[in-house]
Design goal:
Helix content is 29%, strand content 18%. It has 668 residues and is of the alpha+beta class. A hairpin with a 2-residue loop joins strand 10 and strand 11. It comes from Undibacterium pigrum.
Length: 668
C-alpha cells in the first residue's frame, strides 16, 4: 500500500495540535490517518526549546512565550505572550450544555497530557488600580461624588469603564435577551441587528445588521468622545475598541470584563506545548510513523499540481529565497495572516502549470477578513514585590483560593485529612464550591470552609489555611500611559526552595502603543541596520531591555504606583528585564480580530480549505490557527480550527462532544 506524507508548516498551537490529533485520533476512514510507514513533516521558521534534544532559542508556543528568570524552568516566570485559558468544568452537572463556559479543547488537551497537576487560577482583582489622566484611583473609589476624570454623558464616569461596553451591547443584547449559547452567537454573527429604538441623531438605527458596523464607529456614536475614551482607556486593551466587526465584539468583550475565571499552568503556559511535542514524538515512535521535525525552515511557496501539493522551503538565514522543494499529500498552513501573505507573495511569481490557491481573488478577499493587531510585552524581575510593600497605590490583589497545590501543602502540614477530603468534594445542595473558587477576603473563605465542614476551625488550622491559600497576583492595573496594563506574576517559581524572585509584566499593550516602545529600543548614536520587515526577533525570543526603555518603564510604573509626580527612582532597578515585539515578522500581530462587512461564518467554513472558494478546485491545502477562528486571541481558536479540519475533511472523530459546542461557525 502506498505510504502517505503529511506536512505541517508552523509549530505553534495549531500545528502541534494537528500533528497530535493525526497520530492519536480515530477516523471512519483509516486511510486518511497516519499509519506505520507514513511520514509526518513539521516545519517551523523558528526553533523552540521543546526538549533537551530539540534545544531552541526560546520557549515553545509561537505567540505564547513563557520567560523564566535566568532561563531556569524552576524559577519564577512572566508570560510575554498568551498566558491563560478559561477552564471548562467537566464535573459540573450541565457541563456539556450550550451555556457551560470554558475553553473546552484546551481544557481537554491539558487533561489528556496529564498536566492537571500544574493547573492554577489566574487571579484577577475585583478592585483594580487605575491611573487615568494623571489620577490614581481604584474601581471601588468611582462614585457619583468621585467620578473618573472623564466628562461622560449621563454620569457614566461614576461607574466602571466597562459599563461602556454594556451600554453599546444593550442595543441588541441584554442579560436576559439575545444569544446565550455558542450556537446562538454563531447565528447572531450573521443575523444580529440593533433592536433598540435610537434617536434620529444617531448614525445607526434599529434594524441595522451589526456585522456591517465597525465597533469603533458604533461606540463613538453611542457614547460620545469622552465615553469612548473612558471605555478605551479603562479596559486596557486598545485592540478591543478598534473598528472591528461589532457583532463579534459584543461577545468577545464579555471575556475581558472583571469577574471571569481563568487558569494557567505553574510550568508557564509554554509548558502545554512542550508536553504536546513530547506526546507527538512518542506517538510517532510507537506507531512507526516517520516524524521529521525541521526547525529554521519556512514555507516559501505552495502549489497544487496534478493532485499533489508542491511546496518550496526557505532557510531561516535567507528566508526570501527558495532553497529546496518537496511534495506532500496534504499541507497544513498553521500560521497567522502575515505569514500566509508572505507565502502567497512568493507563490505569485512562481513559473508553474498548477493551481495557485492562495492568490485567487476570493481567497485573498477572505484572508483580509482578519485584522492584524500588533502587541508589545515587557517583563521584569525584582528582588521584592515593591508594588505591595512600598507603593503608595498598591494593587488590590489580596485574595484566597484553595487549589490542588494548597490541598497538598496542607496535607504536608498535618491539616486533618477528613477536612481536606470535604474541601475537595464538589458543591452539593446548600454547600458552596470550595476548590478553585476565589474569595476576596479571609472572612469569606473561612465562612465557606466552616459551612462545608459544619464545624469551626481551630486558630492554628485557620492560620494554615489562610497562609497556604493566599494569592497576591495577577491584577491587572490599567493606565492610559503607554504601558497600558501591569500584571503582577509575583514569586511563582515551581521550585519553592529557590530564592524568591518576583515577576512583573510591566507593559502589556497593543495597537498604536507598540511604536512608542520601538522608538526606545535604540539608544543615542545608534541607527537601524535591519529593516523591520526583516526583523524576526520574536523567533529568537525575549530581548534585553535597553537603558532608555528601562528608565521610561520605571517612570510610568512610578506614576501608577506612587502618584503623578513620583520620580522614576521610586521603582527599584530590576534584576532583569526583557521584551517581545509581536508586531514584527513572522507574526506581525499578537492577535487578530474579524473585520466588519464580512460573513464570518462563511469565511471560517471556506478559508480552512481555501480551494473551496475556487470553482472546480479541490486541493489538500488547509489553513488553521487563531487568525480565522471563532476564538481569536486564544489558543482555543487555534485548536478549534485544527479540530474542525480533521473532523470534516479527514473523518476524525471529534475530541469532545461538539453538538453544543461548534468548533467553528456554521454560516447559517
Amino acid at each position: 500500500m502506498k505510504t502517505k506524507t503529511y506536512s505541517i508548516f508552523g509549530a505553534g498551537a495549531a500545528g502541534l495540535y494537528t500533528a497530535w490529533r493525526l497520530l492519536s485520533g480515530k477516523s471512519s476512514d483509516k486511510n486518511k490517518l497516519l499509519e506505520k510507514g507514513d511520514t509526518l513533516e513539521l516545519y517551523d521558521w523558528g526553533q523552540y526549546d521543546f526538549s533537551k534534544d530539540d534545544n531552541g532559542s526560546r520557549a515553545p508556543g509561537a505567540r505564547v512565550c513563557t520567560w523564566h528568570y535566568q532561563n531556569d524552568p524552576g524559577k519564577s516566570y512572566v508570560e510575554l505572550g498568551g498566558m491563560r485559558y478559561s477552564e471548562w468544568d467537566t464535573k459540573a452537572k450541565n457541563h456539556n450544555n450550550g451555556k457551560a463556559p470554558g475553553h473546552r479543547l484546551v481544557t481537554t488537551v491539558i487533561h489528556q497530557l496529564g498536566l492537571d497537576k500544574y493547573v492554577v487560577p489566574f487571579n484577577e482583582s475585583d478592585n483594580p488600580l487605575y491611573y487615568l489622566r494623571s489620577k490614581n484611583f481604584y474601581l471601588n473609589d468611582v462614585t457619583s461624588f468621585n467620578p473618573a476624570p472623564y466628562n461622560v454623558n449621563n454620569f457614566a464616569a461614576s461607574v466602571s469603564p466597562n459599563q461602556g461596553f454594556t451600554t453599546v451591547e444593550n442595543l441588541a443584547v441584554t442579560a436576559t435577551t439575545g444569544p446565550q449559547t455558542r450556537k446562538e452567537w454563531d447565528h447572531f454573527y450573521q443575523h444580529g441587528k440593533i433592536t433598540a429604538e435610537l434617536p434620529a441623531s444617531s448614525v445607526f438605527q434599529k434594524g441595522d445588521k451589526l456585522k456591517d458596523i465597525g465597533y469603533w464607529n458604533l461606540m463613538f456614536d453611542q457614547l460620545g468622545s469622552e465615553g469612548y475614551n473612558y471605555a478605551a482607556d479603562g479596559n486596557g486593551y486598545t485592540s478591543n475598541v478598534i473598528n472591528w466587526n461589532a457583532a463579534v465584539a459584543f461577545q468577545a468583550n464579555n471575556e475581558f470584563t472583571p469577574g471571569n475565571e481563568y487558569m494557567t499552568l505553574t510550568t508557564g503556559y509554554s509548558g502545554m506545548f512542550k508536553a504536546l511535542f513530547a506526546a507527538i514524538t512518542e506517538l510517532a515512535r510507537n506507531k512507526g510513523v516517520h516524524f521529521n521535525y525541521q526547525p529554521n525552515r519556512r514555507l516559501h511557496s505552495i502549489l497544487e499540481i496534478d493532485n499533489t501539493i508542491h511546496y518550496g522551503i526557505a532557510n531561516r538565514d535567507d528566508p526570501n529565497k527558495k532553497s529546496s522543494s518537496g511534495k506532500t499529500d496534504a499541507a497544513w498552513l498553521a500560521m497567522p495572516r502575515y505569514a500566509l501573505e508572505l507565502v502567497a507573495q512568493a507563490t505569485r511569481y512562481e513559473n508553474h502549470p498548477g493551481l495557485d490557491v492562495l492568490n485567487h481573488q476570493k481567497v485573498q478577499l477572505y484572508m483580509e477578513s482578519s485584522i492584524m493587531q500588533p502587541s508589545y510585552k515587557i517583563g521584569m524581575f525584582f528582588k521584592e514585590p515593591w508594588w505591595l510593600t512600598q507603593a503608595a497605590y498598591a494593587p488590590q490583589l489580596s485574595g484566597y483560593e484553595v487549589t490542588k497545590d494548597v490541598i497538598a501543602q496542607l496535607a504536608e502540614q498535618g491539616f486533618p485529612a477528613s477536612y481536606l477530603d470535604k474541601l475537595a468534594q464538589p458543591a452539593a445542595a446548600g454547600q458552596p464550591e470550595i476548590m478553585n473558587t476565589p474569595y476576596s477576603s479571609d472572612t469569606s473563605l473561612l465562612k465557606a470552609v466552616e459551612q462545608r465542614l459544619q464545624e469551626r476551625l481551630s486558630v492554628p488550622h485557620e492560620g494554615q489555611l489562610l497562609t497556604t491559600s493566599a494569592r497576591n497576583t495577577i491584577g491587572p492595573s490599567v493606565t492610559d500611559n503607554p504601558v497600558r496594563m501591569v500584571v503582577y506574576f509575583g514569586n511563582n517559581a515551581l521550585d519553592k526552595t529557590t530564592e524568591p524572585v518576583y515577576g512583573l509584566l510591566a507593559a502589556y499593550d497593543d495597537e498604536a502603543f507598540t511604536t512608542f516602545w520601538q522608538g526606545l529600543e535604540l539608544g543615542p548614536e545608534q541607527q537601524r541596520h535591519v529593516p523591520l520587515s526583516e526583523n524576526t526577533e520574536p523567533l529568537k525570543g525575549p530581548r534585553k531591555v535597553p537603558d532608555r526603555m528601562l528608565k521610561m518603564l520605571r517612570k510610568q510604573l512610578a506614576n501608577i504606583h506612587f502618584g503623578p509626580n513620583a520620580d522614576y527612582s521610586s521603582v527599584p532597578e530590576p534584576l532583569d528585564a526583557a521584551y517581545i515585539d509581536w508586531s514584527l515578522p513572522p507574526f506581525n500581530a499578537g492577535y487578530h480580530a474579524w473585520a466588519a462587512h464580512y460573513d464570518i461564518g462563511d469565511v471560517q467554513q471556506k478559508i480552512r480549505k481555501p480551494s473551496q472558494l475556487i470553482p472546480g478546485a479541490d486541493a489538500n491545502i488547509f489553513i488553521v490557527g487563531e487568525a480565522y477562528s471563532n476564538d481569536q486571541a486564544w489558543v482555543e481558536g487555534a485548536y478549534c480550527t485544527a479540530e474542525s479540519v480533521l473532523n470534516d475533511f479527514f473523518g476524525v472523530e471529534p475530541l469532545i462532544d461538539n453538538r453544543e459546542y461548534p468548533f467553528i461557525c456554521t454560516a447559517k
